[in-house]
Amino acid sequence: MPPHPVSAKIRRMQNEATPSTLESVRNYYGKVLSSSQDLKTNACCLPGAVPAHLREKIARIHPEVQDRFYGCGSPIPSALEGATVLDLGCGTGRDVYLLSQLVGPKGRVIGVDMTEEQLAVARKHLDWHMKLFGYSQPNVEFHQGYIEDLATLGIRDGSIDVVISNCVVNLSPDKRRVFSEIFRVLKPGGELLFSDVFSGRRIPEPLTKDPVLLGECLSGALYKEDFRRLMRDMGCLDFRVVNKSPLAVTEPSVKAKLGNIDFYSITFRAFKLGLEDLCEDYGQVATYLGTLADAPHAFELDDHHRLEKGRPMLVCGNTAAMLQDTRYAAHFRVQGDRSVHFGVFPCGPTPGATMAAGSGSNGGAAAVCSPGGGCC
Ligand SMILES: C[S@@+](CC[C@H](N)C(=O)[O-])C[C@H]1O[C@@H](n2cnc3c(N)ncnc32)[C@H](O)[C@@H]1O
Fold first, then answer.
1. Pocket of ligand 1 (CB under 6 A)
2. Beta bridge partners of 139
3. Distance of CA 366 from the midpoint of ligand 1 (Å)
4. How far apart are CA 361 and CA 376, in angstroms?
């Protein structure tokens, strides 16, 4: 990939209808904040539980990189060895350096961010990390650019195994373009795993211009149902909630501006697969082989699919595809195909449900099927 030039396309983006949003966010992360201590809320920096197998790898990351970690989740999947992973809005590179250890010397991690100050910290410690991890050649690279325009960075169609992002998409003035780029660059069967801030209602326009509310990852948050519609428009008819927690805004001045808007930190998983808009039953059965080093006893696909090692589980056609048509295939035995259809998969009774109720892409506890949102 060539070094990033300030191309005409990027200049055009800077001059487009929303330059103030990009400028305001760049200023917040480049000039206003100098560590996560400076944040006014914890929306961009949730102290959520880090999976045990990642803790010791995070402990090896340089303190200056860690001090400027502004993520709201842990969008780090399994089965990464040898993979090409793209981190959108990588900041100072906390997740990039974590992924560097997981993809190994044959893998590659590409971090993209628009803020020079963030990238300067990331690049400053590149050699230090490569030496610590024992790599003779760097397996990470950082590019200054926009997540809405990955083509300018030379990221080709169908070239990426996994896209991750940690608390960034909410900051984008053009989320449709971000997701369109994600699905362009993913390989067939590739995975998107991202943690972000979502809202339970649309945010009034004036609040989206407030530099602090925006920079704190609140007023740019996507309304959950608009996210579902956006994914449907991208051709992604079934995506899954991996975890979800309500986000409490406690800072009085911020709370006063936001009123009754409810926020959530959610980690979503989606695949570049031709999935159906409802879970359909083809009598398929999936068994986890227990072969992922970080999941010796069970694999958690989402918040309601925990596949125990060796235990056959009846799955819908979409789940079967997620397990057998992706890089997870080597770790599962999936029996049956789609030659015989048994009707809608028996995962719940609520047609037309929204993400506010139900499970899977619908976000709650009971399993629900929802056109345009998927379910099981
Ligand atoms: C909340 S921070 C998260 C950084 C990093 N993911 C982490 O977990 O520490 C948001 C980052 O996204 C970057 N960013 C925001 N909007 C962007 C855009 N449209 N294109 C590229 N980078 C963007 C900011 O510069 C900032 O570094």
1. 22, 25-26, 29, 44, 69-71, 89-91, 94-95, 113-115, 118, 146-148, 166-168, 171-172, 217
2. none
3. 34
4. 8
Instruction: Report the amino acid identity of residue 264.
Output: Y
**Cα–Cα distance for residue pair 48/68, rounded to 1 Å:** 16
Find the 94 Cα to ligand 1 centroid distance in Å.
Answer: 12
Per-residue pLDDT band for 213 (boundaries 50, 70, 90) equals very high
Question: Tell me: the pLDDT tens digits for 26-76?
Answer: 988 988 887 777 676 766 665 557 888 999 999 999 999 999 999 999 999
Which of 67, 76, 113, when mutated, tests ligand 1's pocket best, judged by the most ligand atoms within 8 Å of its CB? 113
CA dist., res. 192 & res. 164, Å (int) = 6
Gap between the Cα atoms of 270 and 162, Å rounded: 10
What domains lie within the chain, and their CATH numbers? 5-271 (3.40.50.150), 284-369 (3.40.5.100)
CB contact set of 243 (below 8 Å; sequence gap of 6+): 73, 266, 267, 303
State the distance from the centre of ligand 1 to the C-alpha of 113, rounded, in angstroms.
Answer: 6
Measured between its terminal Cα atoms, the distance across the chain in Å is 39
DSSP for residue 127: H
| Better pLDDT: 115 or 16 | 115
Contact (Cβ atoms closer than 8 angstroms) between residue 82 and residue 74: no
Q: What is the pLDDT of residues 244-266, one digit of tens each?
A: 999 988 889 999 999 999 999 99
pTM: 0.90
Q: What angle do CA 229, 233, 238 make, to 5 degrees?
A: 70
For residue 76, the CA-to-ligand 1 centroid distance in Å is 17
- Residue nearest atom 4 in ligand 1 by C-alpha distance: 91
Strands 263-271 and 305-308: unpaired
Task: Give the integer Cα–Cα distance in Å for 240 and 243.
Answer: 9
Atom of ligand 1 nearest to the CA of 174: 19
